[in-house]
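Input record (one chain):
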Amino acid sequence: MKKIALSASFLILSFAVRSQLLDIRAYGGIGVVNVADPNSVSTINGLKYDNTTEVSSVIQVGVSSTIGRRVFIQPGIFWQSGTVSTTKTETFGTKKTFEDQTKLSMITVPIKIGIRLLKYDKLTRTNVRLFGGIDAQFLTAVDQTKESGLVTVKTEDFAKWTTYGDVGVGVDFLFMFADLGYRLAFNTLYQTGDQSRANIIYVNAGFKIKL
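The corresponding structure, as predicted from the sequence alone:
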């Protein structure tokens, strides 16, 4: 793993030296979550429940570096937070409903490649970018904010890491930029057999400094 990290760092540094165009970007943003396969069934104390999972809008802040003139590499890191709501309804009988809410915090390390569609303009620094890549997301904190009393939510219930495919488009103007993208989850939100996956449409905006 250390050799892979060192090799990747060397390749990025070599690309930066040859490309002669490097900037640092800081940003904040919001994401709208679409939960794929949100429904499941569970058995608790001999009773069956129909489960539904929803995820609130997420917020994120981070930094990245864009390396390259026309074709570029964009490594980065960002923090993200959102709330997962799980509703359990008795399958038979009284149909009583129980809701739990859990706030999750994550650190995500994306690595993207992309292309600038316009010729570089030194005056306005205006451009349009297309990008795509892979995001590795690591769960850092779990906080149950609403308890139904039926179950106790634990850190072990959630996937410790999630991989995403990440594609989008961005616009640069002077020292500012904005990105619109879509993150497709390759694995599930939970480790408990539930098949829910959190796909995200996001918008980021921030500023950049050319080095």
